[in-house]
Amino acid sequence: MVVVIVLIKVLAKQSGPAFDHIGKIKGIQHVHMVTGPYDIIAYADIPEKSGFRKLVENIHDAPGVERTETCMAI
After folding, report:
1. Considering only Cβ atoms within 10 Å of each terminal Cβ, which end of the chain, N or C, has fewer?
2. How far apart are CA 25 and CA 68, in angstroms?
């Protein structure tokens, strides 16, 4: 299992819809709206590293997502 932490920047007034969308993505374990340079932090468990690209693409499909920064736990 690979643990992935995704820091997400969202357009103004899109945090709610983005939060809802991201929370429904397969593999996402926790989603939090946060203060600071990012708007949302998502934690995911994926079976293997090869699923990483699909996870990030699904997050970018959420309404208002501008950019992400992703970290894999080691």
Report:
1. C
2. 15
Residue with tokens 């007034």: 13
Q: Give the sheet arrangement for strand 2-10, strand by strand.
A: 28-33, 40-46, 2-10, 65-72
Report the pLDDT averaged over residues 31-51.
96
CATH number of the domain residue 62 falls in: 3.30.70.920
Residue 66 Cα to chain centre, angstroms: 12
Smallest Cα–Cα separation from 5: which of 66, 63, 59? 59
Cβ-contact 10, 32 below 8 angstroms: no
Q: How high is the pLDDT of residue 2?
A: 93
Enumerate the H helices of the chain as residue ranges.
Answer: 15-23, 52-60
What's the total number of domains in the chain?
A: 1
